[in-house]
Amino acid sequence: MEVAELGEQLLGAWGEYRKRSRKNASRPELHRDDTLPYTEHRERILEQLHLLAEEGATNLAFPKRVGGGDNPGANIAAFEELVLADPSLQIKAGVQWGLFGSAITQLGTEEHHDKWLPDVMSLKLPGAFAMTEQTHGSDVASIGTTATYDGDTQEWVINTPFRGAWKDYLGNAALHGKAAVVFAQLITQGMNHGVHAFFVPIRTDDGELLPGVQSEDDGVKGGLNGVDNGRLAFDYVRIPRTNLLNRYGDVAEDGAYSSPIENPARRFFTMLGTLVQGRVSLDGASTNAAKAALAIAVRYGNERRQFNSATPGEETVLLDYQLHQRRLLPHIATVYAQSFAHETLLKQFHGVFSGELDTPENREDLETLAAALKPMSTWKALDVLQECREACGGAGFLAENRIPLLRHDLDVYATFEGDNHILLQLVGKRLLADYAKQFKGLDQRQMAGKIAGQVASRIYSGSGLRRVGQTIIDFGQPARSVGWLRNPATQHELLSGRVETMIADIAGALRNASKLPKAEAAALFNEHQHELIEAARAHAELLQWEAFSDALEDIRDIPTKRVLTWLRDLFGLSLIEQHLAWYLYTGRISPQRGALVGKYVNRLVARLRTHVQDLVDAFGYDDPLLRAKIATGAEAERQAESREYYRVLRESGEAPRSEHEEFKKRRKR
Amino acid sequence: MEVAELGEQLLGAWGEYRKRSRKNASRPELHRDDTLPYTEHRERILEQLHLLAEEGATNLAFPKRVGGGDNPGANIAAFEELVLADPSLQIKAGVQWGLFGSAITQLGTEEHHDKWLPDVMSLKLPGAFAMTEQTHGSDVASIGTTATYDGDTQEWVINTPFRGAWKDYLGNAALHGKAAVVFAQLITQGMNHGVHAFFVPIRTDDGELLPGVQSEDDGVKGGLNGVDNGRLAFDYVRIPRTNLLNRYGDVAEDGAYSSPIENPARRFFTMLGTLVQGRVSLDGASTNAAKAALAIAVRYGNERRQFNSATPGEETVLLDYQLHQRRLLPHIATVYAQSFAHETLLKQFHGVFSGELDTPENREDLETLAAALKPMSTWKALDVLQECREACGGAGFLAENRIPLLRHDLDVYATFEGDNHILLQLVGKRLLADYAKQFKGLDQRQMAGKIAGQVASRIYSGSGLRRVGQTIIDFGQPARSVGWLRNPATQHELLSGRVETMIADIAGALRNASKLPKAEAAALFNEHQHELIEAARAHAELLQWEAFSDALEDIRDIPTKRVLTWLRDLFGLSLIEQHLAWYLYTGRISPQRGALVGKYVNRLVARLRTHVQDLVDAFGYDDPLLRAKIATGAEAERQAESREYYRVLRESGEAPRSEHEEFKKRRKR
């Protein structure tokens, strides 16, 4: 295998930026110190942020006019690699430059950029991103904070009307933030124009809260304890009219509201859509953390031995156990798929945000793609980190081996920047909408015909006719079945067919919803919520599989391509194995073929076993990035030392006899 | 529902002891302080241990002769409840009294009891349990530490011959332990008699390491940071001959070895078997932690609202979403099943260790049962804690809401006291052995007939004949299928049939293994390792289902029994849903019925939704035990306050108009 070449492919279009960021992540002064209490951890992270700012390492996304790089793709690529320094450092950087700074960039206009961005970039002005409230997280449109225009003084009055409207979980809010981008209901001339963003100073340069601003500390969290998350409330706090970030909505001195987007719902979603980069970057960062954990667990699993092997005096290497292969290899396959899918997402993101491909359709597709991939990779990272932790046994639980504390920190990635289930539901709704578009312009009869055709095809596959066909062809011929499963066209048909059928089924069940009273329509939708989210997941898996398959086309080295093709097959077959029940009861896979899926997965992991070290080496994480004592060769040294001890003892003739061995021999006689 | 009565049933045979222990776990001075750095957390835990010792709360398992309670079942029940004070406290108590003290009790004799147990009980003598080594965890028989008898001085010489033989991950080893029960290869008169346990002093009363003893600190861990885990090594450390814990093997002054158990392998497993209580107690403690997390998440999910509901001005309660029901209710069902199964296990444990039912068969069954249940509940606790954390969103990530730090601490339960996969493999091997016993005494022809019969039955079900039968009967009659699924006889047949068939299949595949060369036999076994572990899991699930079903018999209140029967059905159907592919491709469930399983689960969770608060209230955990801010009614207060704010605003006539609403109305025209 050409490990180096594969490594370059994994690094992707912004590989140089990733490498530079990895160098940063390798610097000891940017590393986590696990022994610090959370108060000191927070101070250390702030200092580290200053180090990054001094280098200008985090300016890439900002406009060139104010000293930035105007390179959104490179910025995200570099940001994602910081996770291996310390996820707290990554997320605090994300709060400062990715959320606070990005909101000013995306929602503000040039005057705002000139006024604040230089200080944001240099960290002279640390800030919070005050969107989420205690009682409204996912439903941003319903937040309670108000910004009411006072024409007499030409000021905004920012107010927190009740406890549930306190802003919460905000990085930089407990201690370090001097300002916040506050999302609030914009009210002027007696009209609520919906949620807009305002620049609100919150602390003096000495760290004193400004009049009317309250703050609470979120205290210790399940992870990311280097970030000073906290709460903010505003008691009729006044800010100048021009502190409204007014790209998508403005208020004149006389209080008249204007916006380039007439439809308030579309305006709201456009504003939120500019903040998609958080989701994009978490997709990449989670994939990186999962890669690191796999690199650690594979290195250890290749050195660690336990229980006697068939060779006398030798113990079995963990990765020679089928179970250990089964535990780690499908995760490696998924992480490759995620990595390639992420590159697609990042390119789409860069196209839109660099302006090169900025169309409403591309923006919408980008948001759907990010909403589909971010849940998959953030959840998968938690699964992978847990499996790797357990696969390393007690050693895996020690902080010196990195994995458990990475897992603590990554935990919250599943619910921040969009709760994973809510994001998948968005994807599901988009799929339903796209499905409905097929029928647009058709008259009643044509539509009925189209639906009937689909129902018929479902009954056809559900009745088992196709399945019986497979049974007759395959009977007693497992090789033929395996060939069928290995065929990428089969995998694609199975994965895409599942999405299409699930969406068609849900659409069919919901087709009369619009005619029902609101409560009944909501109840009907709710009855299919679980299925809809499953369909969205299936869609995301298909996208990952397609990205992996596309990436195979770019591999020139034949042996590498062969191994990666097995790995893609393992990814596809693992998905089919997970959803096998569905394929069986819809008749898309015959029972005979279904019974072979697991056996073929076993065969694939055994075949990939010899390549497993190469596969994780291609991630390109060396010691200064992994920093896990069990992944430094220490285990191999220990194993060698103990084997040598027993060898010398045996040869000395002074080894004690074994009661157990002698007892066994006596018994045999 | 009769919540109080159900609560008593869940408390089980040692309910009074559980209640007393819960009172302890409610005392603030025994609670975790999340803000402490790990060094101070360790000191706090030590102080807490002294508080427990002063009360005599932890003496229940020790012999009455030395001041104990001779009540092993009550001891474990009380121990399990400590998890809600602080899992570090629980585990440090477990190290001191459950491992160190228990090893002296179980492996030592009266002289040892009299000499050490009083100080162990009072905590005058804190100790470590030094079994695991860096390179040998699961394979205890292969540890490297040696204890060589020196007849001249009548002493044991304890030695760590190489780095990999350092004892590791031992609670009390880094700081507080003054002695250790050290497991080592017993060598006398040139013969290695296998692993035995020795009492070895390691520190002076002032905490100085004794000559020849080395210690290292394991440092920060993924959790349980109140326990001072560390490493120990011995450089030819000498202890008196009588420090051998000699219940199962002794050495006379002249160095002659003797044992009541002739077979060294059986002797080894007998010694290890006396330590089964760790596994038993982790099964119960994990179940308790999962119950607490569910109680928190359900309370919050019943108060928290998000997104508009069909009722104007109202938002939807989280638990009214199908997805939220789907996320939490099957876990509640599983935790009930675990709770009842644990009670069975605890009774069996008490029977054996109280001496009432102490037979070799009961011991063996107890060990298998513990090996089956401990992996299920420790893993499930991690899944439940994660799901509950995510179901509470950002709030779920705060330490003030308990769940994330409980998850950190419980993580290691999956690999300590026996790695979960290794335990399930033990269970699988036992199932294979039991299966083979059927053929004992049969001649070649009878055996062939028996096997042929089984293969035939497999082909029969695999060929789809039974399935086709179901299809014809059910066609277009989902009610009939649901009735079939709801029938406990069906559930039992499906769950038990799966175990039997899987084991028979593996036994069939391995039947010639004994005739193969060692390496080939090992390779053949390895090819079926994954299946064997799946079979063991299926067996454990069956045991849990049976325990749940048995427990239904004891419920007198009819409405309670009805709800609990639905919950049992949800448990059974969730298992069948998880393994549906297997049921489909073996032809045990028809595709038509298979397609209904998920829909019936949806229907069950909707039906149980109104009872969900009762179901978690029956766990009996009140505020001083849960100590989660979001589970105190605070969320309901916030919700009420914000609704009241909007009501007053509406009625004041001063509410701003909504651009969004007016835009929608204009559009409709």
TrEMBL record, chains A, B:
<feature type="domain" description="Acyl-CoA oxidase/dehydrogenase middle">
    <location>
        <begin position="128"/>
        <end position="236"/>
    </location>
</feature>
<keyword id="KW-0274">FAD</keyword>
<dbReference type="Pfam" id="PF02770">
    <property type="entry name" value="Acyl-CoA_dh_M"/>
</dbReference>
<dbReference type="InterPro" id="IPR055060">
    <property type="entry name" value="ACOX_C_alpha1"/>
</dbReference>
<comment type="similarity">
    <text>Belongs to the acyl-CoA oxidase family.</text>
</comment>
<feature type="domain" description="Acyl-CoA dehydrogenase/oxidase N-terminal">
    <location>
        <begin position="47"/>
        <end position="122"/>
    </location>
</feature>
<dbReference type="Pfam" id="PF22924">
    <property type="entry name" value="ACOX_C_alpha1"/>
</dbReference>
<dbReference type="InterPro" id="IPR006091">
    <property type="entry name" value="Acyl-CoA_Oxase/DH_mid-dom"/>
</dbReference>
<feature type="domain" description="Acyl-CoA oxidase C-alpha1">
    <location>
        <begin position="273"/>
        <end position="432"/>
    </location>
</feature>
<dbReference type="Pfam" id="PF02771">
    <property type="entry name" value="Acyl-CoA_dh_N"/>
</dbReference>
<dbReference type="InterPro" id="IPR036250">
    <property type="entry name" value="AcylCo_DH-like_C"/>
</dbReference>
<dbReference type="InterPro" id="IPR012258">
    <property type="entry name" value="Acyl-CoA_oxidase"/>
</dbReference>
<keyword id="KW-0560">Oxidoreductase</keyword>
<feature type="domain" description="Acyl-CoA oxidase C-terminal">
    <location>
        <begin position="489"/>
        <end position="631"/>
    </location>
</feature>
<dbReference type="InterPro" id="IPR013786">
    <property type="entry name" value="AcylCoA_DH/ox_N"/>
</dbReference>
<protein>
    <submittedName>
        <fullName>Acyl-CoA dehydrogenase family protein</fullName>
    </submittedName>
</protein>
<dbReference type="InterPro" id="IPR002655">
    <property type="entry name" value="Acyl-CoA_oxidase_C"/>
</dbReference>
<dbReference type="InterPro" id="IPR046373">
    <property type="entry name" value="Acyl-CoA_Oxase/DH_mid-dom_sf"/>
</dbReference>
<keyword id="KW-0285">Flavoprotein</keyword>
<feature type="region of interest" description="Disordered">
    <location>
        <begin position="650"/>
        <end position="669"/>
    </location>
</feature>
<dbReference type="Pfam" id="PF01756">
    <property type="entry name" value="ACOX"/>
</dbReference>
<dbReference type="InterPro" id="IPR009100">
    <property type="entry name" value="AcylCoA_DH/oxidase_NM_dom_sf"/>
</dbReference>
<dbReference type="InterPro" id="IPR037069">
    <property type="entry name" value="AcylCoA_DH/ox_N_sf"/>
</dbReference>
